[in-house]
Specification:
Blueprint lengths: L1 H17 L7 E10 L25 E12 L5 E12 L6 E6 L1
Antiparallel strand pairs: 1-2, 2-3, 3-4
Length: 102
């Protein structure tokens, strides 16, 4: 029991001191994942043609990439620069859109 208490106390002290400003001024983030549109439904009717049977699941793929960096001036204010890329593509046709964000 004493060993567990000692280990817990050391971890608490380590976490408390690691929150110092020297460690939290700059951070980098990278993300990769699944993108899923909310509703690319096309109403079936006159002129819908091939696109009448599309569903949001037809556009879901692992085509999201995000990278960014943040520098904090103080605890409240800082600067962040990020870039994100998404591609929504339907495999059966050449229907696709690229979405870039800075």
């Amino acid at each position: 029991m004493n060993k567990i208490s000692l280990i817990a106390a050391i971890l608490c002290v380590t976490f408390a001191f690691s929150q110092d400003n020297h460690y939290n001024k700059f951070s980098i983030e990278v993300a990769y994942g699944l993108n899923h549109p909310l509703s690319p439904k096309v109403n079936s009717g006159a002129g819908a043609g091939v696109l009448s049977d599309l569903d949001a699941g037809d556009f879901s793929e692992f085509k999201h990439f995000d990278i960014g960096g943040r520098y904090m001036i103080n605890q409240l204010y800082g600067f962040k620069l990020s870039y994100a890329y998404d591609r929504f593509q339907y495999d059966a046709t050449s229907l696709a859109i690229n979405y870039n964000r800075i």
